[in-house]
Amino acid sequence: MLMKQLFFLLLTGWLSILSACEDRMIVPPFEPITPPPPSPAGPIVSIAGIANPDRGYHLEFANYAQKQLLTDGDTYNQETDFDTATKLSLREIRARYGDDNTTTLIQLYIYLRSWAAQDIPASGLAQIQKAFDILKTNGYKAILRFSYDQDMGESLESHTWISRHLQQLKPVLQQNMGQIAVVEAGFIGAWGEWHSSNVSNDQTLRNDVVNSLLDIIPSPYNLEVRTVEIKNALTLTQPANLSRIGIHSDFFTAGMDAIDDLSMPGAYYNQIQEESPYFYMRGEIPYEEDTYGFDQKMNINKVMTILRDQHFSAFDITQNFELNITYWKTQKVYPALLDANRILYDSTYFLNKDVVVNRSFYDFVRDHLGYRLNLKNAELQTQGSSLIYNIQLTNTGFATVINPHDVYLVFVDNAGSISKEIRLENVNPSDWQPFAPGGNNYQLLVHSISGNVSVGLSGTFQVGLWLPDPLNKYYGSYDILWAPGDNLTHWSDDAQKYRLNIIGTVKF
């Protein structure tokens, strides 16, 4: 009891100090820094986002796999079909949260509660497949989680049936890896969060779920668990897979709630900072009004610092939408503020007709979750039918490109047709870190792509950089677009098989 009282006094004292400093910028490890100069004159100016794969804000949807899955085109009566059908309408979900057509991720909960103690029937597997088909049609990927319990204390799951269901789900998951950004361990506990059930603390079960999923998901794709403590306690059949295990921070409060120990200074924060350059990291704020709700507006200086240090690729906008997410749309972000917090950016991001303007914090986070690739220079020289190229780029996102993408030089003729694709061997976008991992050296890295390729063409061609997803090749919505600018434009073919980053014109 004495130790609890001492802890309470220390905690409340620390919180009082923190609260008193809220008017100053406080960043982990919560050391005050000098406030920046005032923002540029004028209002917030919106900026168009880029719909890129595997990164950005995400929505969420609960799919009860025993129900018929309906789409926008299906006739749906909410009253009569409530118990037998559920509707995955990405268009309606996006409209609900004011999405500007840049969101490409949805956290997809698949509830197996009707089959907690029996095989998933063929009809259930078909409904799961239909969900993936809907995602592919719309150019989306899932942050995927399976669960049985939709509330605390239900305890529907068992070790035996989880193992059986993993066997059944293996072919479905492997067939649809192109529509999965990351898999969350799930299966155990309330909402698949590994707590509040009779088996949620069974370490053998935890190990088996993780090892089974790592076996199902091909390397280098990632799995996420709920906390660093859970990750550290795992026993893996292949220890090298530890680097493929990321974190889903499901109680993100920028350290303003004691439950959120991932965002507070200490061992967990430091471990994520060290390991997250190489794994998939995502987060969500608790709902405003809930048993474990969060009704405070977060200090955006803390938020941006944590997103940078822990290399966030994705963040939920459906939870705490009315409070913090809406608040972010009113907060100004500008170069001096980012400089004071040592947050990376490209200066052109704040230019509007050559004038430096304010952007909203909402837009800034939207545009810098995961990767944001910027062309700094492109030297293209022809020598006979060969191309000598030297390309420099920066990544001002919070993270790098986590999932595999190839890199090609593509040549577009004057008629707008693709004349040649040349894959650049040994170029891996995952190497394009925003800054050097380890420590607090937030210096923007410049990456180079250079070489000499035989093209074998004659005539004048636009040169494009093409970064397709190897599992979705020729589905242009899964290609990576770089930030547009004076020296880079975007190009797509009529069939939408390609989304290219045009970096120049050459004549052979």
Layout of secondary structure:
Blueprint: H1 2-20, E1 26-27, E2 31-32, E3 56-64, E4 68-70, E5 85-87, H2 90-96, E6 105-111, H3 122-137, E7 141-147, H4 159-175, E8 180-184, H5 203-216, E9 223-225, H6 228-233, E10 245-249, H7 267-275, E11 281-283, H8 300-309, E12 314-316, H9 321-328, E13 332-333, H10 335-341, E14 351-352, E15 355-356, E16 359-360, H11 361-368, E17 373-383, E18 386-395, E19 408-412, E20 418-423, E21 447-454, E22 460-466, E23 489-492, E24 499-507
Parallel strand pairs: 3-6, 3-12, 4-5, 6-7, 7-8, 8-9, 9-10, 10-11, 11-12
Antiparallel strand pairs: 1-2, 13-16, 14-15, 17-18, 18-21, 19-20, 19-22, 22-24, 23-24
Shape: globular
- In angstroms, what is the radius of gyration? 24 Å
Q: Span between N and C termini?
A: 81 Å
Mean pLDDT metric: 92
Quote the beta fraction.
Answer: 15-25%
Number of strands: 24
